């Protein structure tokens, strides 16, 4: 039973990386902007966070550096697609490729570096409960903050005036513009906020989840996070649950290997990506259902006065 508790704890950790990034991309898409650059932003954020912690020893500064790096890249992306009307999909792909190349080049000298000893976290009293303690109450605070973030976004999108305005821009930017809302600036704010969350995910990945720098260490998590928004039909709670589901699939490969299951390691490694493809294929069988839930202006440029 203890092994299952540890598997559940590992699932929460692995799912947190996906959840933070997917919630950030959800903010973008609720405003009608598709950003395919999550992978690149997460890589640059991870490198910025790692370098900062190596030189300062401060995890807090590392998180800030990761958030700032990704937010800057997202702002550049936002200016290109919102003001210069470049294609959202092509620009996002370019950002992803840039992030992968730049992080590989700039991170060469840090491959052998190590972070200071990682602190252990536990909620006093609760952490000592048999089974439940190791499974639920010995996580980094960011795991619990991510759960709170999902709840906050539910309130923001469906209960706050600002969230309703953001959603209205995602549905019909022309109508929002006619009512006097600064559509471009609100979209830019959503893009930067989404990028900042992707940066937070990259920082969490390298500071907490895998505290070392390796080229391409995000390993497709940005693409899985992007798929999660569709899988969750653009709902924050479903994004969180979907992230833990994919996190569980990711950790299952290690659990099976530890249990001595004779399955080729290559097959186990591809399980998370196979699950992503299968889920998207199943969802795509009902395009009408996707259209009902998807923001109507998603991926479409907006030209004021046209």
Automatic annotation (TrEMBL):
It is found in: Cell membrane. It is a multi-pass membrane protein. GO terms for cellular component: plasma membrane. It holds the Pfam family BPD_transp_2. InterPro entries: ABC_transp_permease. Keywords: Cell membrane, Membrane, Transmembrane, Transmembrane helix. The keyword Cell membrane applies. One of its GO terms (molecular function) is transmembrane transporter activity. Its main location: membrane. Signal peptide: none annotated. The chain crosses the membrane at residues 6-26, 33-54, 60-84, 91-111, 141-158, 188-210, 216-234, 241-261, 267-284. It comes from the Bacteria. This is ABC transporter permease. It comes from Ramlibacter humi.
């Amino acid at each position: 039973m203890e092994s299952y508790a540890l598997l559940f704890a590992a699932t929460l950790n692995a799912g947190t990386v996906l959840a933070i990034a997917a919630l950030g991309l959800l903010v973008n898409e609720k405003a009608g902007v598709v950003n395919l650059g999550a992978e690149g932003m997460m890589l640059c954020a991870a490198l910025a966070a790692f370098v900062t912690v190596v030189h300062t020893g401060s995890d807090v500064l590392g998180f800030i550096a990761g958030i700032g790096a990704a937010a800057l890249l997202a702002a550049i992306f936002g200016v290109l697609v919102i003001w210069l009307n470049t294609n959202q999909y092509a620009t996002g792909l370019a950002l992803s490729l840039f992030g992968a190349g730049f992080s590989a080049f700039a991170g060469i000298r840090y491959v052998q570096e190590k972070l200071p000893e990682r602190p252990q976290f536990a909620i006093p009293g609760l952490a000592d409960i048999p089974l439940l303690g190791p499974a639920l109450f010995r996580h980094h605070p960011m795991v619990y903050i991510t759960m709170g973030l999902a709840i906050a976004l539910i309130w923001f999108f469906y209960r706050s005036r600002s969230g309703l305005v953001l959603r209205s821009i995602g549905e019909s930017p022309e109508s929002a513009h006619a009512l006097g809302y600064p559509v471009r600036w609100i979209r830019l704010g959503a893009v930067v906020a989404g990028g900042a969350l992707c940066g937070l995910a990259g920082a969490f990945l390298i500071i907490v989840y895998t505290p070392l720098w390796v080229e391409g260490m995000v390993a497709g998590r940005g693409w899985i996070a992007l798929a999660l928004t569709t899988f969750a039909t653009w709902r924050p709670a479903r994004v969180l649950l979907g992230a833990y589901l994919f996190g569980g699939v990711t950790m299952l490969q290690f659990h099976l290997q530890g249990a001595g299951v004779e399955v080729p390691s290559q097959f186990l490694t591809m399980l998370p990506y196979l699950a992503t493809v299968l889920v998207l294929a199943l969802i795509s069988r009902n395009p009408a259902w996707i259209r009902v839930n998807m923001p109507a202006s998603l991926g479409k440029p907006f030209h004021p006065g046209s």
